[in-house]
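Re: folding output
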Amino acid sequence: MPHSATSVFRITQNQTAGVSFILLGFSEYPDLQVPLFLVFLTIYTITVLGNLGMITIIRLNPKLHTPMYFFLSHLSLVDFCYSSVITPKLLENLLVEDRSISFAGCISQFFLACVCAITETIMLAAMAYDRFVAVCNPLLYTVVMSPKICSLLVAASYFWGMRWSFVFIYFLLTLNFCGTKVINNFVCEHSAIVAVSCSDPSVSQLSIVIFAIINEILSLLIIFTSYVFIFVTVMRMPSTAGRYKAFSTCASHLTAIAIFHGPILFLYCVPTTKSSWLLVKIASIFYTVVVPMLNPLIYSLRNKDVKQAARRLITSQSICHQS
């Protein structure tokens, strides 16, 4: 495998010396360029402040040094990186007429976005397992979800994301590209890249579709199984207040799962046609730009501990400035 991979990279470097792409984005709507720029700039600003703010609040507040918030801080880090890989180029292309991107730049963007997407998928599954242990085995929670186990689960999420992203890049680099090609999207997304290939992309397409389906099935199976046990356990609780607290704790996570996995299932598990490129762009916008903004809002607006920690941090900072 290492020898074949090296050969592929060497051949690809020779074949793609003069290759570049043009990200079509939303250029077919010239009157919307400035409004879209302002909308996406606002979303990106909220994303950066929200996710970095969430990480800061969790790290500075000892009360939030628990497994759930440990996972949440890494989810915020992944969302920040995910948005930062995609949105700056999107904003640039809404302002300039030259929407070109080099072959290396396009492949790099795809690789980094792929790492973030897969990592977040596994991270959400790990968070579901964490909620399962917390609700169904509260007495064993600190033992089962020890700092070592939590670190291993997070490390496994990053490793899984990087491992499969390299596999996708390997298959992508086996394709031939020639000249300057127009990508009918705002991001270097797999289906858009292979659509402009000069060779048969069926193997590369099949590999990512099979992996996406398997990855979705495995992660959603973990999530579904965890929440079935959680639901059964909660319904057996004699206290109405206890049931409400348990459900409210899981509500944020379930919302994050729904808004993340929906567009993924649409993009990679449902075959797309040329007539559906607008839907592909909208779905891509949702899970690459909007979802990273929504996650910190979902977890902060529905979480008393986070809101209290944020108030304390803001109060302490204001006192420091006044003094």
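--- second protein (sequence, then structure) ---
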Amino acid sequence: MSVTGGKMAPSLTQEILSHLGLASKTAAWGTLGTLRTFLNFSVDKDAQRLLRAITGQGVDRSAIVDVLTNRSREQRQLISRNFQERTQQAALSGNLERIVMALLQPTAQFDAQELRTALKASDSAVDVAIEILATRTPPQLQECLAVYKHNFQVEAVDDITSETSGILQDLLLALAKGGRDSYSGIIDYNLAEQDVQALQRAEGPSREETWVPVFTQRNPEHLIRVFDQYQRSTGQELEEAVQNRFHGDAQVALLGLASVIKNTPLYFADKLHQALQETEPNYQVLIRILISRCETDLLSIRAEFRKKFGKSLYSSLQDAVKGDCQSALLALCRAEDM
């Protein structure tokens, strides 16, 4: 890579994205997935190939990975139904089995299961709940919550109420309600100023709930203006104010939500990097993010990862991930960013 004036030149992916004018536009992230619809798709051929892969002499893991990481979510659902009609045989185990099962599930079912597991496990409830409730589109979230109720015979909001409390509970319930404004293209300067003043006045435990409607009802474009205006007015970044005023799960939730609002691909890049830095990679996080974002904005996530950490996501996965699941995760990531 060339270096000019002591600074590292932008990666090829970053350069392409900058010319496309898409990397910083929320509405365009949907075009930046790494996994696309397979044009010469044949559900019968794919199901037969998978059947051969598990019934031959030894499991052909590479064939399984090749099929499932080169088909869109809709195509994988057709394969899953066709394949289940042919066999109920289980041939995989461990993390590779988790990846294959996640790839074959409908998106809403996958998200509902992840949310349920997180809410029932206190160590991951905040992180996963914010990720799912704050980054899915309104239709995706509605479908997820409907599947949650169908599969677990309880509303997600009831589990949120029973498993959380305080400001965290208020945040998660507001996000689950899905009442965020849509951006009309018109900047409301007066409302931005009102929100900044409300956040500044919201000091002390009795006023903290003011942050909830601002963070969960305003559209991202408006909130980015509020964040900038807050910093100009107070000389303090909003994230610093959160760290000073909130503690524990409420602080984690608000910081995560602010990160999603400001730059969703960077939010996911940070989460992937953190998952890879643990003594043993956090495979649940890696699997969830790579599968849920591979058809939406994984190219943007890769670009943000390379920009912030100086190393590509692909290389980081190669170095940290071991075993059968490495090839599957690399196939979802797709390529190196030079």
